[in-house]
Structures are given as structure tokens and as C-alpha cells.
Amino acid sequence: GSTQNQHHESSSQLDPDPEFIGFINNVTYPAGREAILACSVRNLGKNKVGWLRASDQTVLALQGRVVTHNARISVMHQDMHTWKLKISKLRESDRGCYMCQINTSPMKKQVGCIDVQVPPDIINEESSADLAVQEGEDATLTCKATGNPQPRVTWRREDGEMILIRKPGSRELMKVESYNGSSLRLLRLERRQMGAYLCIASNDVPPAVSKRVSLSVQFAPMVRAPSQLLGTPLGSDVQLECQVEASPSPVSYWLKGARTSNGFASVSTASLESGSPGPEMLLDGPKYGITERRDGYRGVMLLVVRSFSPSDVGTYHCVSTNSLGRAEGTLRLYEIKLHPGASASNDDHLNYIGGLEEAARNAGRSNRTTWQPLLAMLMLLWMRLSLRTGGA
Amino acid sequence: MPQTSPNWRQADNERTKGAVSVIAARNWATGTATQDWSQKSSSSWSSTSRRTGISRTRTRPATLTTEMTVAGRAERAGVGAPWCRRFFHTSPLASWLRISFVLLVLPALGFGIQVVTCSNPELGASAPDPVDLTWGGKNTEGQLTTATRSTLPDSPMTTQNDLITTASNLATAKKPATAASEAVVDTAETAETAPPTEATSSWSSTAVARGMSSADGAGEAIATSQSAQIGLTTQATVRQTEAQTASTATQAAAATSAATSAAIASAAAATETAAEMLISTIYPASTETDLHNSIERVEGQRGKMANAFHPGVPDSLTKGFSIPTFLPPFPVFAAADLPAYRAAADAAEAAKLAAEAAAQAAAAKTSSEAVTMSPEEQRRQMFNEQHSYLAAHRDGGDGAGSAVRRNLTMPVLNITAQMGNHAYMPCQIHRLSDKPVSWVRMRDNHIISVDETTFIADERFQSIYQEDHDYTWSLQIKYVEPSDAGWYECQMATEPKLSAKVHLQIVKPKTELIGDQSRFVKAGSKVALHCIVRGTLDPPKYIIWFRGQKKISDSDERTGWYTQLDRNIFGTVGDNQNTIGSLIIPLVRKEDSGNYTCQPSNSVSVSVDLHVLSGEYSASAIMSTAARTTKGGRSTCHSTLGLLGILGLLWAMQGAMHTPPTQT
């Protein structure tokens, strides 16, 4: 008993217990940088300091000796009290807590943690690829991203337009410049929503990353002819125009002539033998100039009839067809007559041309009144001849 | 000149239609096959659309013609509708014709008056204008009303044409110009343009002649004009009817020839033809990046299937499968329709199923083998794998990936130690590598040692190097305590680390007393005290009995007391062992009362209080009985007989206790 008491007294007097000075600061660094954890100890004496990774209990260092074979880990003991653990070229796997131990009984320990920041990255396997959806259906664009901190996912349109989003259960479309969230839900798609969308993942650790998702909204063609009745003098060039909306891209062509009872059946070898008028397909060449311009799902079909002649008078059809349907527009072309060599009075000529213009406007209203312009023209001719006869 | 406008239009239409017909005739068979092909899959529309959208080359007419043919056939069922619509529109047009006729008379009369005066040549030049407009409109509308009227002969026009010389000269003047223009356009059409011209001339001259002579001239003029109109309309109607008939006949002939050619051709030829058409109508290359990427992806996906189904023509078929991802490819349907390809597909499917079955069988065999292996065999196998791994990466500092690391994890080793003894935990990592070996106590992540350097302050822990063993750096814990139980891990400082876990269990022996804590016996009886030690890995070397503070010797000649030690009673030999220690007092006296203690060598002690009672009247009987029993006990030296003796004594005591009240 006396021996133990003496030993206890001597130890308490001569060697005070080691203790920590302050705390180990937690650090946050991007990947690739260097992290340092400092552990300060007072009254170490004969005791030892060791470093250990807390997540998987890996012994890293003992005093100044690095135990692990990881070349990126080193220990610095510059001043008397501080033992520093240095991890260079940080990796994501280095994230976690590290323990500084003093081999007292019981052991004393302090823990410091390292957070490694990772730039965002988009997971292609879990994100949407290019989509082709029919108009009226739903589509969901998905974009999954990884990184530390967890990235924010933002959707934008590539062309800078506003994103049209429909509220669930509502008919109206909201316009938003950007949409936050990994899933962009588009309900009852409209053709206006077709285009390229960008998924942007960012988490304040540069660089941000983006992925392009092309959304194709498919629908049957729609054709509209702005001018359905065109008049031009002989010998001049006249341009016929049709506006087309279609997706996927349609096959477009021009037909000339009224529709017969057989429809397309008449376009065959029989037409050559019979000689009856049927719709003929117009080809690009010296007589007809056929061009087509497309911008997205919209397009314009242009037909230029060069050196207008009486045989060019008639009905023209612009036809557009794709895998989902077919549509066509109808235009009529007629001749405007000028008399530069006539020696009659100007008033009569102006009245003549004015009448033609009035007839053209009436013709555009409906088909049931097609005979009215002809009747008006006949009356005008008769009045003119009667007046001239009276004058003589 | 103006009077030839309708003929001019007809000529132009016919020439253009001729060109179109030539193209159609050339592709008629192709169109038929394409139609059959498109019925199996709708990809033709999309491929055609895509091709046309991408490039506007000269091949467009052929494609357009094919499409028109398909559309025309689709519309064949609706041919009847226009007829109904036509009859419906006849009534309003008839009323319109009456108004037109009335209006026509007035300009005609005006024209006649001017001709008679002949004073203004310019008026004469402008006179044909109303005729041209009226004639064109009437010609178009007249076709619709001819079916209900009869045909009249043309002879009156010829007769009246010779009456007036002036009118004849005017007609002659017009003819040369018309003939010249027609010659320039198309010489073959001259015959068709002559009748309308003559009709017009005769009509004008007749009107003039009759107008001058009598009031009936107007009636004749009207009749003549009606006759001329009917004639022209009849001819046009006949031509249209002939056109329809010829068209129908041509289509029927084409269909028949197509069917015949289809019957003649073989299945393989048809497939190749369809594939070639598909290739010729699809342009795999595209200037658009997205389309090109998608095409390549589709080709990659379909490449294997194409090779499996069509080994004969790999190049053409591979080129032809540039189809968008949202449409099914053509070869799948073709394979389904042909018996040969269906058999090939079935064979491929059967082979696939067989391969899957074989894989499953192999997996089952592997798993069964894994289950069969014992922990020792697993440990040995893992040890060998570690050996291979370390030999391969002797110089590599950073080691291999996590997959290899996971495989090299050793199974858990369980070590059991008895409290107070020493525990030895081997580190099951091969000693090939010269890297440091560390021990960690996982309860509190305490570093214990690194190689021979001890970190933990507790001096009971030590790392021991064993030269003559497969394992190095075993961890020794002396005089283990219950708090030492738990997980310990040895690590080899590779990157990532190699580690082996050891679970240490501490068993604590327990000493129990057989019987009550306080014993009451009659003086002169034989007494046996027993204690049992349970749960030991090592049995106690000795069990010492004490009376108070005085140790009882194993065998006392004077008093006859002796002790006894029995091992492996009521316990399993392999695991825990039980040991019984006994103290035998042959003849107990009153002064033998006191506290007796059983002290095993490796467990705690237990005590029992012995109370010896005295009874005079029964003492002699008990003593005599005890003496008899004692002799038997000594001779046999069996504890069982001793126990039976004790029971007999108790029974006798109970009987004796009931006797004294009777005597009193």
C-alpha cells in the first residue's frame, strides 16, 4: 500500500496529464487541393500522438511516422505542441473525419473533419435523351446530377425563349424563363414547346455542366394559302405562296388543275391517252421555280410561274404530307388584261380595270358566287359597246 | 388568236402529263412493291419525308409519283361521291344558263350592227373579246349538262357557210393566224382545233344574214348557237368517258401484271428487292449533326439483329437500316413473314434460352460450392488469393481498386479467452509485404500498436512477432478482463488497406453451491459439502476448502475428513467444462458447526454455514445406525452410496422425531 501511494504522489507531482489545446478545425476544400488538420497537445511527456481515419479505422500516422502507404498523406511536427496531418491532392474518398489520439489511459481524442467539394456532373444513364412525342401527349425531361454539394438542376431553352409549362389540371400555359428541378414535366404538349432544352447543373464549385435534350413535337401537316386568288398580266412572273406547319418534316409538292372525280388515279398512263384535264405535278425548271424554306416546324412553299401565259390560268394546289397526315391548300390564278395601244378615253380603261378588281375581291368570298363576276363583266361589256354605238 | 386559248391549255396539259406518265410507268412495279412494303411498316412515309426534307435532288419526282399512286389507290373507294355532288349542282347551273343566254343576245346584236356599218376598223378588232370570255366559261360549264340532252348533226353549219362572201373572207383571215400558232406549239393538234373555229365563223355569219332579211333571223340564230354548243360539249364528254374507261383498264392491267410478277418472283428475291428499294430511298448520311447521331445509334442497335437475320447481304441491309428510333425496322417484319427467317429466329431464340440455362446452372454450381466450403477452407483460399495479390503488387504503392479490395477481405475470426488468462489474436494477413502492420481496438478506435511499437498505455497489450508462423504480429492481451471483449482489427498499410477483423469473447467462470446456503444436521451424521465451477475453458487446478480462516487439508487421518475433486460432470468436453469440489465429514460433532468456504483456483469462492444439532434420546439409535452406514461407505468409496446413506439418515431422523412425544 505505501509503495503505491508513493508512486501515485510522485507521478502526480512530476508529470501532469497531457491535454489538448483548442480544437481541430473542420475544413472544406475543392478536390485536388491540399487539406491540413492541426492537433495541438500540451504536456505530452512520454505519451504519443497518433492519427487515425475515423470512418474505417485506418491508422495513418504514429508520432512523426506515417504508417499508411498513401503517398498523399504526411505528418508535420514543426513546433513543440502541434502535430499536423496533411492530405494533398484531395479526392472525394478523402472526405470524412480524422481522429487525433493521445495514448493516455483512458485515451484522449479529438476529431476533425474534411469536406471535399466536387464539381457537378450529369449522369447520362439517368437523364433523358432526345425525345419525339406526338402533340397532345405528356413528356418528362429528366436530368440527374452528382457533385458535392448536391447540384441544383435548372432547365432553360437553348434559344433563350421562355419555357411553356402547363399547370396540372389547367388549360393555360405559363411562361417561365427557367425551371428548377431535375424533372421537367410538360403536359399535353403543343408544337410551340418543340425545341432544344438545356439542363444546367451547378453547385457553386466551378465548372457548371449542361446537357442538351432535343424535344420534337410531332403533328400532322397544316397548310394555309395567304392569297387564294392571284391576277397578273401576260408575260410577267407571278409567285404563289403557301405556309406549312408540320413535324416531322413533310414532303411538299405543287399540283395544277382542278380535282377530277378520280383524284390521283388520273395521274397515270391513262391520262396521256385520254387527254382529259387532271391535276399535274409541277417540276422545278424553266417554267416553274419551286422553292421551300423551313424554320423549325414552320415552312413556306413558293411557286414562281415565269412568263405568265393564258395556259397558266387555273387552279393550283400546294400539298404537304408526313407520316401523321396530309394537308393541301388551293390557289387560283387568272389573267389581268391591259390595253396600252388603245386610243379610247382613260376613264373607260380605269373603269374597266376597277371592275376587274371588284370581281377579284368577290371571287375570294365563296364558291357559290363564282358566276357573279362573269355576269358583271358581260354587263359592262354590253354597256360599253352600246355607248360606243350611240356615239357613232 | 384568242379563240385558241382552250386548245392551247389542252396541249400544254397533255405534254406535261405525258412526262409524268412516263415516270409513273417506269416506277409502276416499284410503286406496287413499295405499297406492299409500306403496309407492313409505316417507316416508308417517315423515310420519304426525311429524304425529301434533307436533299432536293432530281430523284424527287419519282418519290412523289410513288406517293401519289398510293394516295390515288386509297381514294378509289370514294369515287362515287363526286357523281352525287355533280347532280346536286345541276339545278342552279341550269338557271344560270338561262340568264347567260339572254345576256349573250345583246352583245351579239351590237356586234352585228357594227359589222354592217364597217366604218371603224378598231371596233372590229376589239369585237372578239366578249366571244372569248363567254365561250371559255360556257365550255367548262356545258360539260356538266350534256348527259341529259341529245346530239344534233353539224350539217347546217356547212350549208350556211357559203352564203355570204364577206363573212367567208373574215373567217379565212382568222384561220392562217390560228394555224401558224398551232404549228409552233404542236402540229398534231391541228385537227382538234379546226371544228371550234369553223363553228364560231358559221355562227357569226348566220346571225348577220338572218338579221338583215327578216324577224325570224333571231330565232334561227339562237337555234344555230344551241346546236353548236351541244356538238362541242358532246365531243368533250365522249373524250372524258373514254379517258375514264382507259384509265380503269390500265390500272387493272397493271395490277394483274404486278400480281403475276409477284407470283413468279421468289421470297428471297422479293426481300432483296424490298431491301434495295429501302436503300435507294433512304440517305443515311445527313448534314445535320443530331440526325446523323441518331442514325448512327440506330444502326448500332440494329446491327446485330440485321446480321442475324440477313447474313446473305450484310452490306446493303446494314446500310438500309438507318431508321428513326421511334419506328420499327423493316427486317423484323420481313423475317416474321418468311418461313426460313422465322425458323432462323426460332433457332436463335432457342440458342439464347439454352445459353441462359447454362449460365444459371453454372451460377448454381458456383453458389453450391461456396456454401459447401467451411470457414477454414474459405480462410485458406482467401489467404492464397492475398498471396497472389501481394506478389503481383509487390512494388505498386497505391494498390488496386475497390473490387480487388473487397475480394481480399478475410473472414472474421472468433477468439474466446477466459477471464484472467492471456489472449492471443493472430493477424491473418500474409507476411510477404514489408509494410507496417497495425492493431486497432474498434470499440473506441484506439490505436494499439504499429509493428513492434505499442501505442496504447495499457501494458497488458503487446504485439508479438512470430517467426515460425504464417501470420505475423499477433496481438497478446494478458490477464484479460470482461471489458476487453469486442472487435479488434489488424491492418496492413497498403492503399487501400488490407484488414482482418478478430472478435474476442471473454468467458467468466461461475462458482455455485450445491444445496442450501445454511445446512442443519444432527450430531453424529455424515455430512458432504459440494460446490461446482461452471463455464471454464480451463478447469481449475485445485479447489481448496476453508473452515473460517483455517485451510482444511486434503486428507486428515485423525478426524477422517477428506476432500474430493471431480471434473467433466454434466458438461460438454469441447466447450465449457464443469468441475465439482466436495468436502466429506464422516462423523460430525456439535463443535464442528461453523462457516465452510470453497475456493477454486480460477474462480470466486462460495461459503456455506453448517449447523450441527444434538438430541440425547435418539442419539444412541442414530449413532448405531451411523456406525453401520459408515462402514459400508468406507468399504465402497462411492459417493453415490454415501448420498443414499444420507437419505436414509434423514428418513430415520424424521421417524425418531415423532417418537419422543409418545414417550413423554
UniProtKB/TrEMBL annotation, chain B:
A GO term from the CC aspect: neuron projection membrane
Comp. bias (Polar residues): 140-160
Pfam families reported for this sequence: Ig_3, V-set
UniProt keyword ATP-binding, yes or no: no
Annotated Low complexity bias: 41-56, 181-201
Coiled-coil stretches noted in the UniProt entry, renumbered to this chain: none
Residue segments, region Disordered: 33-64, 138-160, 181-212
Entries under SUPFAM superfamilies matching the protein: Immunoglobulin
Protein name: Defective proboscis extension response 17, isoform A
